[in-house]
Amino acid sequence: MQKTNAGRFFEDYCIGQMIDHAVPRTVGTGERAMYHALYPARHVLYSSDAFAQFSGLAASPLDDMIAFHVVFGKTVPDISLNARANLGYAEGRWLKPVWPGDTLRAQSEVIGLKQNSNGQTGVVWVRSRGLNQHDETVLEYVRWVMVKKRDPESPAPETMVPDLAEVLEPAALVVPAGLDFTRYDSTLAGEPHRLRDYTVGETIDHVDGVTIEEAEHMMATRLWQNTSKTHFDGTMRDDGSRLIYGGHVISMARTLSFNGLANAQMIAGLNAGSHANPCFAGDTVRAWSEVLDLAETAAPGVGAIRLRLVATKGGAPFTLRDDGGKYLPHVLLDLDYWALMPL
Q1: What is the per-residue burial (b if ≥16 Cβ within 10 Å, else e) of 165-203?
Q2: Does the reported pTM lie above 0.90?
């Protein structure tokens, strides 16, 4: 009997398949400290119990991207262990804060399959959910992954591409219970700019850059228990390099966006996302944002800002695609998300 897990290949998936991912994880302030050590994270709601309590919460929750990384890492052995690439995201929602002491587990449903024309790989769409110890969903998102076939001669499954929303409506966003920004302290938050100070179409160069180090990336993938071979094993690529985990780039870009968007406190929704080009150790990540929409919520003093966050490894800011619509070579990430911000 085979004792080791070789991971699933494309032909191992079927529409409607439910996968309960192994090894629940209890998270705490240690994950917060490590997150803030790996990334230049400074958003105050995730840094200060006192500020969070002044804003109507019981304490400072763990960073929204900690929840994403932990849930994503749980799914890797079953979804992307044999992936060629993680292609995109949609319909992501943060439904409940994650608190120190919560135990997270993950579950995925296969909602789409499409074999590629080369017959060597196929695309798998899954809707993944992160649940806490009370079986409450704290996070959900759709992602699609290009996965290798075990046997190129195996028959292709019937193609089913899910119909996904291009953008989450503001009414679909969930504001944490009790959140109240009516007494928001901009001085402690670090910048005075509130929702009313931004305009649709405005672009922001976040100025700063961080050079990705191999050691820090390896620490991050271990922290999030992301076991995808392309991040760990240099023999998986012809050039001997290890691909930087896309979530590492997301967190780096999000934290770099503090300079200009310090009051975009909590990620509430993920509309779309693409890892446009690979990132490797030695690349210097920079970021810019474009304001796509502004909305109010039912929570006192709380608005929502829709942002395009672009991470680059050089190139001029605010450049994204060539004349043919293809991402320019310096673009690493194109992310469309909603964040909660004081009005």
Answers
A1: eebbebeebebbeebbbeebeeeebeeebbbeebeeeee
A2: yes
What does 248-259 look like in DSSP terms, one character per residue?
HHHHHHHHHTHH
Q: Output the six-digit token pair for 312.
A: 């680059």
Which secondary structure element, helix H or strand E, spans residue 38, and what is its range?
A: helix 29-38
pLDDT in tens, 101-118: 999 999 999 999 999 999
- Per residue in 133-159, is it b (16+ CB within 10 Å) or e — as a string? eeeeebbbbbbbbbbbbeeeeeeebee
DSSP label at residue 45: G
Helix 246-256 crosses helix 64-79 at what angle (to 10 degrees)? 170
Average pLDDT over residues 209-224: 92
Joined tokens for residue 93: 């929602």
- At 154 the three-state DSSP class reads coil
Continuous H helices in 165-320: 186-189, 214-223, 229-232, 246-256, 258-261
